[in-house]
Every structure is written in C-alpha cells, then in structure tokens.
Amino acid sequence: MATPPTSAPPAPELTGTQRLVRWAIVLLAGAVVLLWPRPAAVAPAGWRLLAIFVATVVGLIAQPVPMGAMAVLAITVAAITKTVTAQVALSAFAHPVIWLIVAAFLFARAVSSTGLGRRIAFLFVCRFGSSTLRLGYALAGADFVVSPFIPSDTARAGGIIFPIARSLAESYGSHPGETARRLGAYLMQCAYHVGCTTAAIFLTSMAANPLAAEFARKFAQVEITWLAWARASSLPAAISLLVLPWLIYRLDRPELTRTPEAAQLARRELKAMGPMTAREQRLVLVLLAVIAGWVAQPWHGLHPAVIAYGGVSLIVLFGVICWEDVLAERRAWDAFIWFGGLVMMADGLNATGVIRSFTDSLSAGLQGLSWLAALVLLVLAYTYVHYGFASMTAHITALYPPFLLLAVTGGAPGLLAALALAYFSNLNASLTHYGTGPAPIFFGSGYVPLVTWWRVGFLVVVFQLLVWLGVGLLWWRFLGLW
Fold first, then answer.
1. 221 inside domain
2. Which of 72, 266, 353, 356: disulfide with 125, CB 3.0–4.6 Å?
3. Per-residue model confidence as pLDDT tens digits over 153-173
4. Range of 87's domain?
5. How many structural domains compose the chain?
6. Burial class for 49, CB neighbours closer than 10 Å (0-12, 13-18, 19+)
7. Could you tell me which of 360, 401, 55 has the C-alpha nearest to residue 215?
8. Where are the strands (E) in 360-458, listed by range?
C-alpha cells in the first residue's frame, strides 16, 4: 500500500477569470449590505462592519484567496475605514482559545510526522478487518482515537484515513467505475460520514469548534470546557459511531462482504513500519497527559490552552518535533489569523447591536412555541441550511451567533443550545459532497455517484438528528443541562 500523505492535496490554482468572478461576488455581497436600509438601533459603524463581515463570509465560501488572506483583508479594511480602532482590530489575537487551536495543530503535526496516526489505523484494520463491515468499524475506531489531537477533519480524514481506505479498496480490485461498489464506495462513504461525526465529539477535533465555544461565551454567557463538550457528546456520539458503519452498509450495500486479506495487508504495513519508536512512545505519554489535564480542568482551574502548551513544550523538549516543525506548521498559523479576524468581527457586531437587531426581527416567528420546540426547529434549520455552505467554519461564523441568541431569547438554557448547535455545525457536513474540506477528497475519488452521495448523506443526517435530538436530549437532561 502506498504511504499516505500527511495533509490533503492542494486545491487547483484558479484562473484569472475565476478569481475575478469570485471577487465580484464578494464585493457584491458587501455592497448589498451597505445599500440595505439600516435599522435605527444599529450604529453606522456597526452596519459597515456587517458589510465587511458578510463579504468575508462569502469570501470564505467562494475563496478567491485563502481563508487567512481573506481575514487579513477584512481586518485591514475595518481598520482603514475606521470602522474599528487598530487596538480592536488586533485584539482577538491575544485570546487563549486561538492559541489552543495552534497547539492542537502542532499535536496533529506530531501525530502525522511520527507515523503514530497511520500505526493506529493499521492496528485497527489488523484487529477488525476480516469483513467489509468490520473494516468500516476499524476505520471509524482509528478516526476516533486520533480525533482529539488532529483539529483538521481534512488532515485527519483526508490525510490519514482516505489513503488507507483507497489502498484497501484497490487491493481488492475495487476501482472507480464498474467495480466501485465492490468495496471502495462503502469505505469512502463510511470514512467520510464517520469523520463528520468525530469532528463533533471533542472541542479539539475540528478547528472551528473552539470558535463556537467562544461565541457561546460571548453571546450566551456560558463556558464550554473540553470535558463538558466531550461528556455531553459521549452517549449520542457512541450510538452514532456504533450504528453508522452498519447503516451505510445497509444504505449502499457493498458487493464484497469478506475481506480476510485486509488484516494481512495491515500486518505487512506494520511490519514495514517496525516497532513503535521512542518518539512515538514519548508522544503517546504526552498526549495522554494533555487529555488528563483537559479532563481535570474543573479541579485545577488552568485554561485548556495552558495545558496544551505544556504538552507542546514537552514534545519539543523530548524531540518529538523540533522548533522548525513548529514554525513550518502553516495550517496552525493560518488558523490563528482567520480565527482572530472572525472573533474580532463577531465581537464588534455584538457590541454595536447588529446581531441583537437581527435576532429580534426573527424571534416573532417563534412566538407561542415552547423553548424546546423552538430549539429543535432552530437546530433543524441550522442543519439543513448547510446545503448552501462549503465550509463548516463559514457556517459557524455566519449563523451560529444569531441562531444561538434566538434559542436563548426563546428560553432555551444557554449551555444546551450552545452545544446542540455546535454539534450540528459538524454533523450537517454529511449532507453534500462539498460540505467540508474532506468532502471533495472522498467524492473526488470517483467511487460514489452524486445521486448516491446525496441520498446517503441526507439519510445519515436524518439518523443523526434522531440520535442527537432524541437520545441526546434525554442524555443532556440526565446531565442537568436542562
């Protein structure tokens, strides 16, 4: 089997015409907001900031330039137009949540560069790979184990799981086209939808999850710790992970049911990798210590970012990665920039009354409903509107704050509403073949026709809604969230 890359393949370069068209869409979005009648309750500076914010969100979707560059441009325009002061424009970069994201990306680099992620995946395949269904569970287990430390679903599912799934399919003669349903179509769909689920399980398993947590703190005045997030997700996530491989197996049944050679292939790969290196062993100890620190956060009171940087310090001191690796982890510093820009704009929109004005205008539609019915309807709307988004980050940035405020003003407990919307910020990506970074990788492999992808994705999200808003609500009641 081929050695998998440690990151997703780069997107194709845009032509000049494509870039101009995308920039035109971004500018048009901002201009529409500026020309729209401004509510009296919103200050002029707040309305200008809204125009910049909307243009930025559209830019995150259209991507005429990368996300970090779009955020830098938004910060610059906001400061040059005196919409915000220089101090406000750059204030969010001191927030510890941003540095937590950077640390998580550094852990991801260590897991990839040491080969620990591949080793874990092959261990699962070796142990559970005797049948097609068990192979699906093996990929799910591997994704789950590494998810707390790899905050990019693209790097995790696309960089570790996808190459292994593709190699397994090819080893059984399953290729795009006539033989796709032999094995490859099932593995691609299973790995992708499981990846959307593991992205929801931990605060650190998707880059924008801390963004949702930060919005929850600002707009609902609730603190979401790493432990609180994981504890609330644990039961519905366990059900999802236990059922999803079987459900996809039933929805698009593969032709091949037995895969005895998969375990042999995994053993050969593990033999080629050799015994666990000292770097891997030290990394495992550090990661376990970091997890323990996050779990114990309510008792020792240290911010999760402080614990994370204790772990980063140890993996550098122990030689797991070197300082050059820290500097070279461009995804970490890219996330640092776009996260800071988005948090700054969200703060400004809240302070100037823009978000409150928006939610006040929509709250009339929820009058007469109980807070629970209103929350369920908001989660449903928030989930299915993802058909219009190609990025979970853009979705959270644009819609999480107003939907959260609508839920809270309707009487829903802040922590319950914040977590429910945060979980479906990830789960909703199953809907389409463009809903998040790994989607084009798995769909682009050519194993699954578009109609099948959308049909299975729609049914998977229906299943997730039943689990997370059925069993999940009962579990959250047991935990005292409502």
1. yes
2. 266
3. 777 887 778 888 888 888 888
4. 39-478
5. 1
6. buried
7. 401
8. none
